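Morning. Coffee machine broken again, so started the prediction first thing and wrote up yesterday's gels while waiting. Chain of 280 residues, entered below exactly as on the submission form.
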Amino acid sequence: MTNFNGTILEKEEQMSFQNRGYAYGDALFETIKVSGGKILFWEDHYFRLMSSMRIMRMEIPMRFTMEYLEDEIRKTLENSGLNTVTSRVKLMVHRNEGGLYTPNVNDVSFVISASKLNEDFYLIKDEFYEVDLYKDFYVSPSLLSTLKTNNKAINVIGSIYAKENGLNNCFLLNTNKKIVEALNGNVFLVKGNIIKTPPLSEGCLKGIMRTQILNLIKDLPELELVEESISPFELQKADELFITNVIAGIQPISKYRKKIFNSAVAKSLVQKLNVKIRLN
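Came back before lunch.
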């Protein structure tokens, strides 16, 4: 089932070739985890979407309240038979078709789809996870790079590179040759009691799970949070590296080049994250 502008479609409709999301990448999306009927971090998703729409100069409809879009997500889940299971929801907003690079209108439409996930809460699996750098293309350290648009060419090509080289993931670099993020999430580095992550000014995605982890760390007096640039040379000196996104939660990295890492801090943060979700 797909929800298009509030109407449930029982079969996939053929998309117009003039759809601006398809033709020009003129679209934004949120990937959302729903666990036990609870839409996780919904407020953060909503405000990120609204902020991104403003930056993209999309017209935000009056009906696009947090309550309206939440109801549409729940309607999609119910009609898909997923309202009682853990699910991945994709909420996409695209500018309505018309025009070339310059759109004829700034009005938008939305599409909501959902699929089943297996795990209710966040887990850390003791599986080998190897990463390396992807250096064929670079991320621009700009505000547009922090948005979750469907302009994901570097992520697609980087993922193919990772698969061809037997890697689980890759780190992306910006044009200043600093670590920005992983192919599918934000990056954190642990050295002693210091946890570092690149600031948004480096061009990393303004990740929803990134925000949750930042807030968790700020409440832990035994850890010091630092948002600053990370050089590739720092990676092999770290005690831990991990990747965050709203579907996996926290993914510890086992190996980067010749360095093997532990995952003690990552495991501790996952426990605290799950407690926070239950309490909320």
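DSSP finds seven helices and 16 strands in the chain. Going to sketch it on the whiteboard this afternoon.
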